Amino acid sequence: MAMILILDDRATNRSIYARLASVIEDNVSVEVFGDSADALEWLEGNRVDLVITDFKMPGMDGAEFTRRFRALPGGATVPVLVVTAHDDRSFRVRALDAGATDFLQSPIDHFELVTRARNLLALGRRPAAQGLAEQPPRPLSPDPLPAQSAEGLARILDSLPAQVSATDREGRCIYANAAFAAALGARPAELVGARPTLLLGPGRGERSRAGDLAVLASGTPLPPYREAGTAGELLTSKAPLRDSSGEITAVITTSIPLGPEPER
């Protein structure tokens, strides 16, 4: 049974990552922490197969956490996946220098997180990894999800409080999870094929399409931004969805209802 540790100071992120982790493979056990020191204390007496950590956190950032984790008994060969919202080479260099194995840019592509985590778990189980005490595993590129994992991931996405949708390069909706459809008073299947202005109205729909076009042009995620939803304020982000050849085929939009936690 795989043990995955998730570290993020935002409760919403911890909830989302934990639910996604449950579909990586069968019999996954997850421990979540909002504080780096608490996570390190737990790791001193417990085995873990994969660590997923945020980079920017109060007190101890993801790089320092990774450095201290690598110094613990058994921590040198465990894959560490760092999630960062900063498109800055210095952050990646700091994390790499500390021993990070792989990176994901926030806002995350949920399918990519599951695939990368599954690959890293497989890498950590290779017999050769036992002899890499001074050299953490190298990053892996995402592979296509098996059909069973994809179906499970769809169920996970439908259980998330976040509104998740995807539009193709022409602006047509190709996926909507249950929360997004419910916010619009519809069923997910009824939204497929519709354009943003029809789903969201002229103003919000045009802004959404402009954001999609920016992602398609740059190939990079958009920083999270606030917008008014049908039932309150949302924190919305957009990220490219790539096929196995690396070509951008769609844009994933994730909107999280703003709660009491302050925006970072």
Automatic annotation (TrEMBL):
SMART domains: PAS (SM00091), REC (SM00448)
Repressor among keywords: no
Domain PAS, chain residue ranges per copy: 149-193
Pfam families cross-referenced by the UniProt entry: PAS_4, Response_reg
Sites bearing 4-aspartylphosphate, chain numbering: D54
GO biological process terms, semicolon-separated: phosphorelay signal transduction system
InterPro entries documented for this protein: Bact_response_regulator, CheY-like_superfamily, PAS, PAS-like_dom_sf, PAS_4, Sig_transdc_resp-reg_receiver
Keywords: Phosphoprotein
Chain ranges of the Response regulatory domain: 3-121
Protein name: Response regulator
Annotated organism of origin: Roseicella aerolata
